[in-house]
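Exercise 7. Given the encoded structure of a 653-residue chain, write a plausible sequence.
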């Protein structure tokens, strides 16, 4: 199959021939580049960073120890605020020191949803701590990321070096030299085991960018430590140069669509360029990163504030990239047009609106639990901490949750002044109301403690997404401060392709499946490809003090499935009508997926049939790699069916 034919098949929808041709030409160039690059990488000789001035080593060390013109986050740089943190976040400070001690004493720290892992006396950075598989140090373009029995996402998380941020924060509040010594020891170990351009840890520019950002955060703290000598400085500078070079040479751009990967690439470049003006490439990195970051906001953030990948998990991640980067621009007097600030604000409003009353997020689409700067262990459905930063930034009480305590990210990002501003701010429920996000396909129904999220999103990325699920017309419901009907989450990616397939399948979501078909085409052997056959369409949305109603349908089956949800706010229940338009006899399976640990009896009742449900074991994953037992109630019908009517109640009985 020719390159152009492969491109046409990859787009999964309509595409202009000129766009397909441009993408084919781009991929041909990448292939030629790899052929040229392979020999140079395998024979790579480490070189010092390319800096502007020819100062002596002693002067460079003094320079980098001194005050920096480029300003980083106040929590990492304001030395006088360490006591403030220990006073105002005593529990977090104790936990932080305990975590840093485990890193130093036992080489143990948390890894995604898998819990704490011990990485051995000598850390093997290429070893998957779950399967034991050691990724080869082949040229990065030759590394096969699937079919090894190992989940590369796990190894990538280890090698983002997020635990260096834990060591840096612990050093910041204690000045304990054990933490700085451990940082530099592990950094040398990582450098020795990960030669430039070789192995799994150099296969993805996004991973390189996120690692560079974590290293920059650690650098801002540890440059004040006694262990920061000339050798350590030269090591860090060389690594920053190599990371910047790699990102530039392997940008994850496509004429068909860009995603959180390319955004991470350019944000990483912007950070490197902004904070390392001593590098000859800094201006190029900064300009490319800054300009393309804003272009990606135009492209990837919908008018109603949602990330366009049909995923609340990736919305959180993309929001972090924009939020932290915009703040750094503000600290450094880099101007950003007001329309981009408005869009950032709308991204935060979207989060506030989709959060359940218990403060957690519906896990629509994929999530890999990724964060930009790991400052506190956060489950994949924990998004509320970003609202506190947004509340202070935009002086918006609507983003402050009622009774909410300041999250520690607020301190590290905005410093003690940010925490004080948050504490002095009143909260408002202006966004905790029923509202529609038509571009995202998210419809929220609220009243007091009652909440329903109705999902009409497509596959994402303008119909060629990779992180959407077959969840069209599915619902999430919560009442009384607890989740009742939930989306099952993601669990894992390539580590278990069978479960990856199940968690994004129609049968794992609270909607109707017909003839065992998928709403959109998915395959076990293509874990990041989803079709766009369903094409959901919203027909009606109304909201009032007494009731809300939404009507939507999709076209992914031989018959049209239309779902109407009516919320009786005074009666504290929802009525759901599923209608089917088409010919012939079919098998219908209507499922409602319940939260773990819930007595599921009495919440959902079928009003127009005596058919009783069966209960299927369908686990829920609220963090990447974590899985909890749960059940789905499934009603099965065969023949000609025109309508099913349901009542979903907030209480049992």
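Solution.
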């Amino acid at each position: 199959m020719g390159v152009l034919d492969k491109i046409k098949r990859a787009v999964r929808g309509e595409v202009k021939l000129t766009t397909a041709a441009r993408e084919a030409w781009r991929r041909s160039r990448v292939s030629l580049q790899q052929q040229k690059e392979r020999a140079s990488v395998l024979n790579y000789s480490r070189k010092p960073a390319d800096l502007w001035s020819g100062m002596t080593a002693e002067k460079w060390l003094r320079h980098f120890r001194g005050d920096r013109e480029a300003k980083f986050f106040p929590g990492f740089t304001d030395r006088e605020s360490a006591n403030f943190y220990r006073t105002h976040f005593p529990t977090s400070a104790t936990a932080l020191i305990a975590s840093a001690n485990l890193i130093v004493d036992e080489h143990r720290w948390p890894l995604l949803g898998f819990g704490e892992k011990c990485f051995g006396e000598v850390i093997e950075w290429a070893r998957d701590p779950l399967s034991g598989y050691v990724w080869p140090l082949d040229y990065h373009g030759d590394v096969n990321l699937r079919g090894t029995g190992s989940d590369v996402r796990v190894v990538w998380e280890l090698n983002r070096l997020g635990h260096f941020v834990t060591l840096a924060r612990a050093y910041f509040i204690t000045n304990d030299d054990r933490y700085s010594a451990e940082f530099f020891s592990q950094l040398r170990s990582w450098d020795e085991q990960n030669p430039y351009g070789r192995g799994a840890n150099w296969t993805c520019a996004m991973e390189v960018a996120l690692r560079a950002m974590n290293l920059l955060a650690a650098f801002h703290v540890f440059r004040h430590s006694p262990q920061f000598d000339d050798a350590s400085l030269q090591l860090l500078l060389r690594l920053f140069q190599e990371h910047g070079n790699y990102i530039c040479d392997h940008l994850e751009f496509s004429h068909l669509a860009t995603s959180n990967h390319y955004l991470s690439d350019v944000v990483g470049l912007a950070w490197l360029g902004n904070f390392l003006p001593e590098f000859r490439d800094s201006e190029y990195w900064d300009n490319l990163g800054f300009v393309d970051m804003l272009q990606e906001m135009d492209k990837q953030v919908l008018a109603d504030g949602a990330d366009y990948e049909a995923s609340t998990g990736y919305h959180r991640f993309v929001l972090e990239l924009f939020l932290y980067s915009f703040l750094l621009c503000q600290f450094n007097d880099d101007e950003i047009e007001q329309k981009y600030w408005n869009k950032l604000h709308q991204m935060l409003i979207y989060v506030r609106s989709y959060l359940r009353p218990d403060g957690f997020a519906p896990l629509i689409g994929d999530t890999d639990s990724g964060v930009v700067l790991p400052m506190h262990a956060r489950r994949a459905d924990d998004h509320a901490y970003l609202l506190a930063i947004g509340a202070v930034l935009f002086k918006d009480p609507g983003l402050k949750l009622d009774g909410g305590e300041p999250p520690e990210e607020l301190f590290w990002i905005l410093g003690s002044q940010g925490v004080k501003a948050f504490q002095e701010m009143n909260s408002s429920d202006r966004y905790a109301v029923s509202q529609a996000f038509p571009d995202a396909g998210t419809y929220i129904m609220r009243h007091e403690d009652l909440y329903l999220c109705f999902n009409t999103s497509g596959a994402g990325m303008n119909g060629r997404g990779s992180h959407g699920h077959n969840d069209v017309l599915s619902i999430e419901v919560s009442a009384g401060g607890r989740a009742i009907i939930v989306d099952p989450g993601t669990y894992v990616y390539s580590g278990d392709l069978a479960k990856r397939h199940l968690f994004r399948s129609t049968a794992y979501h609270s909607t109707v499946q017909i003839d065992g078909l998928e709403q959109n085409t998915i395959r076990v052997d293509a874990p990041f490809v989803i079709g766009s056959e369903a094409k959901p369409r919203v027909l009606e949305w109304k909201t009032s003090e007494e009731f809300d109603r939404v009507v939507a349908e999709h076209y992914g089956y031989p018959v049209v499935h239309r779902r109407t949800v009516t919320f009786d706010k005074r009666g504290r229940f929802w009525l759901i009508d599923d209608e089917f338009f088409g010919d012939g006899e079919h098998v219908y399976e209507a499922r409602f997926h319940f939260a773990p640990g819930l007595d599921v009896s009495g919440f959902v009742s079928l009003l127009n049939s005596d058919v009783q449900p069966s209960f299927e074991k369908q686990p829920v994953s609220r963090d990447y790699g974590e899985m909890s037992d749960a059940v789905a109630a499934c009603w099965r019908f065969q023949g000609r069916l025109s309508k099913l009517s349901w009542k979903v109640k907030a209480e049992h009985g």
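Remark. The chain is about 40% helix and 15% strand. Students should compare their own answers with the one above.
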